[in-house]
Amino acid sequence: MPDLFSPFTLKGVTLRNRIAMSPMTMYRATDGKMSDFHIMLLGSRAAGGFGLVFPEQLAITEDGRTGTSCAGIYDDDQIEGLSRVTAIIKDMGSVPAAQLGHTGRKGSELKPWEGKRQLPPDHPDGWQTRGPSAITFGGRYTFPVHELSIDEIKDIHRAYASAARRALDAGFEWLEMHFAHGYLGASFFSPLANQRTDQYGGCLDNRLRFHREAMDAVRAVWPERLPLTMRLGSDDFNVDGVQFDDAVWAIGQLKDHGLDFADLSLGMNTDATMGIPWNDVGFMVERGARVRQEVGIPVGVSWNLGIPAFADRVIREQLIDLVFLGRPALANPHWPVWAARELAQNDPFSLIPEDWAWWLRSRPGPEGSLGWPPVQR
Asked: Helix-strand-coil percent breakdown of the chain, rounded to 5?
């Protein structure tokens, strides 16, 4: 029976454990390029024991960023910084993963601590946002949205394929397509944002066409030996939006197009939501278990999984296959080691590089002297 610290193999890639660091936008990129900051952030989490490590979402086009300080993979000049990131992640024993995305109508915005409001297209740091239909998101997203033409949709699919080639050149070994959180792919899937009357809108099958064609474009250039995964906006928590039954059907369809793994998250296509259980521990696990059972595909979820005993239990009970941690990974770069201590693993320090582990095993000192809090069992 697997546990949180057992290896996980998908295609030709084996993770040392079931713990993944989720992509989180850090607003530290310049011209879409990774820097020493990203090498520090991601290398330390790999050294801290995470099995799979994502940088933030990588925009496939310049206007696919959230803001001007977000990372991209739309230019060959960005490969060098990404290669430095993948090199340190691998050197520390983890697998580097890339998440390709386009923010769609939720782009062109300020940093969260600067107000996160959307900038107008004529602002020096703003641009014309694009989406499936000319429907603004609402709230702080107030500026008109350009409805993509079919030719522009095809251009975006080609941009996905080009980004996948760059990800391979940069050394990534796991590729995720970000179709959640109200971004472009999520908005095509949701009737709240997609009111097209052509082959990309209307019925559920048409609203999934964008995903299928994007995945086909990427699958054509991404090696079969490496995992191709997708973060899907699986529920809008709005009666007029995506329902979870829609997502179960969609993942089955995408499995037939080469999807190897489903990363389930929220749709976030509107602020008009009802009943999102934000404070419930692991509230996406039950949904993940259903997809795993009904579709027969490996599954990971995020949202409130930072309690070690709970994270371990959902793996042991084979409800999901990977635990995705966002804020816990930011709060504690050695979360896996801490969790191993909490769960009474025989050798928690086996999760970190041997040159660090030797010192911590050989010179333990009195209780508390290493700076770890007392074990809570």
From this structure: 35, 15, 50
